[in-house]
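help with this:

***
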Amino acid sequence: MIVTSLLDLAISTLEVSLAVVLAAAAVEKLMDPAAWMRTLGNYRVAWLRRAQVANAVPLIELIVAAGLAFDVAVARVGAFVLFIGFAAVLLLALSRGASGACSCFGVVAQSQIDRAAVARAAALGLAALALVLTGAPSRVQGQPFLVITLVVAAIVGGELLLLSRPDLISANDRVVG
């Protein structure tokens, strides 16, 4: 029984983590849609610069995030497709010599179009695939679910704050690469 409970806890934590990542990314993009649209020019992929695409990305991120937060099974597949799609677009952009900000997590996070962004998107896609493959809905509810949600939100929020404010990180703590 404890193994099932730990598995449920892991599934819930992963599901909430992906939901928070997607929601935070969407909110960042929606807060400054003009900057988000400008950043899409860095990708060197013409269809990305269409207003319909630029507007759809954060809305889809929000829809999938909400589905994950409410344990809607199809949202797991949506997260997988979304993250693998992001990795594919980043690979396409890199193959065309793209560089600069990717705005993967909005314009504040200052992430770049590079191999690390591809790896991050692919890793998130694999995490979503793990949820798809479990097949079972999360059974963690009530207070434990609330605690998981708050802890994950605090961690992701702190990370986004540090990404948006590099001056808060001392020179000794910075990762170069």
The radius of gyration is 17 Å.
